[in-house]
Every structure is written in C-alpha cells, then in structure tokens.
Amino acid sequence: MDTELLSGTFVELADTMVADFDIIDFLHRLTERSVQLLPASAAGVVLAAPGGELEVAAASSDLAGLVELFQIQKDQGPCLDCFRTGRPVTAADLRGPGQPWPQFAAAATEAGFRTVQAVPMRLRDEVIGALNLFGTGTVPLSPGDVRIGQALADVATIGLLQERIARRREIAAEQLQGALNSRVIIEQAKGKLAERLGLDMDASFKLLRDHARNSNQRLTDVARQFVETAAADFPPPARRSSRA
User: Fold this and answer.
1) Which residue(s) pair with 55 in the sheet?
2) Distances, alpha carbon 140 to alpha carbons 75, 93, 94, 117, in Å
3) What is 3-166's CATH topology?
4) How far is 92 from 107, CA to CA, in rounded Å?
5) Which of 37, 42, 57, 243 might form a disulfide with 134, Cβ 3.0–4.6 angstroms?
6) Could you tell me the pTM of the whole model?
7) Phi/psi at 128 (nearest 5 deg)?
8) Which of the residue ranges 8-12, 223-227, 232-236 would you say has the lowest mean pLDDT?
9) What is the pLDDT of residues 141-168, one digit of tens each?
C-alpha cells in the first residue's frame, strides 16, 4: 500500500473547514482514494438526507452509482443494512446460493461485481451514511483492508460533522440537501456532455470536474452552466485538448 497516499488522503479528508468547501467533490475524493488504496474496483457513498431517506451522494464510476441507486430503490442491499445497523456488512460471492438480497445480488453481478464491503459513516451513535466498496473477484476484503476502509469513512464522517457544527446543524442539513440536489444537476450535465462528445459517463464527469478545477469554479456551478447554456463549445475545446 502507498503509505504516502494513505497519509495524504487522511489529511485531505480532515480538511473540511476551508471557505470554499464542496461536499460533492469531497465525497468523490473519498470514493476515488478508496479505490486507489484498497483492492476494490469501485466505491460509492450513500448519505441520509434531512428527511432520513438515503440518497446516492458519490461514486467512483457511473456503474457503481447505478448499483447504489438500485439497492436504495429496491430497499435491499448491504449498504442499507450497514446504515440501519451502524455495523460493517460483507457481501461475499454474490453469485452464491442463499443471498439475503436476491434482487441486489442479481443487479450487482450483472454489473460485474461479485463482492461488496459496506462500512458505516458513523460517529458514536450518529450514522450519516455508508461507504461501499465493490469488488469484481470472489474474495472479500481482508480484515486489515476493512479497517482501513472504516478509518477512511470515520475521518470523512468527522470532517462532515465538524463542518456541519461550524455552520449550525440546520444550515448544514440544508447544505446537505443542496448537495444532493446538486448531484442531479451534475448527472444531467454528464449525460448531456456524453451525448454531445460521444463519451461514456465516467469520461464526461472527469471532463466536467477537470474544467471546474482548472477554471477555479465549483463543480456544481460548472454543471449548471453547462446544462443551461446553449454554447456548443463548452467546455472550451482548447482546454479540453490540453488536458486530454
């Protein structure tokens, strides 16, 4: 394991007190670092909205995001059990017999995933969501890897709750709902850009986020601008080609 990347990730996830803190970008960083650090093929984050219902907040790939959405819609899956119990849940070999989540297992294996490790995003008795690690092989994460995944989720949770306290609880709840609403705008922008440029959804998201970072704008603002603009050359072709 890359210990320098691991330590740097903990620093990134703990730094939520900056003035321009962006929850969506923060959670995407959590999923991407989880895949880089652990033997997982994809990762996703589900968070509880102010009303208590779970929402997909981030995923390292569009496929993982769809699987996360499926288990929420069907109300079955390891991440839901993890969130409800506040305990890690391991789903080993989803093609095996006696699955406790038959619909989820079928959808996950169709997407190419054979194992799932869900770890709670929890601080003491408060569970705000779950981090889900998807694998394409049949061997689940080792106990050591699960501990690292839980540590990443714990640091991210502390950072989110710390930011929430700083802005007062009710303001943070509105911000969280706004972040979940922003994800809808980002998904629309991904689809529009993918259709326009002939890209897959993951590549179109990377293009949007690169443009946001390189132009020092919030990802949500770039996505909204792209959805609402009629300009055919957005993002600018020169910038796209320079980052390709």
Assistant:
1) 47
2) 23, 8, 11, 7
3) Beta-Lactamase (3.30.450)
4) 15
5) 42
6) 0.71
7) -105, -10
8) 232-236
9) 999 999 999 999 999 988 888 766 666 5
Which residue's structure tokens are 């981030």? 58
Residue ranges of the chain that CATH labels 3.30.450.40: 3-166
Q: Which CATH architecture has domain 181-243?
A: Orthogonal Bundle (1.10)
Tell me where in the chain the CATH 1.10.10 domain(s) lie: 181-243
> Cα–Cα distance between 19 and 41 in angstroms, integer?
33
Residue with tokens 């106990």: 143
SS (H, E, C) the chain: CCHHHHHHHHHHHHCCCCCCCCHHHHHHHHHHHHHHHCCCCEEEEEEECCCCCEEEEEECCHHHHHHHHHHHHHCCCHHHHHHHHCCCEEECCCCCCCCCCHHHHHHHHHCCCCEEEEEEEEECCEEEEEEEEEECCCCCCCHHHHHHHHHHHHHHHHHHHHHHHHCCHHHHHHHHHHHHHHHHHHHHHHHHHHHHHCCCHHHHHHHHHHHHHHCCCCHHHHHHHHHHCCCCCCCCHHHHHHHC
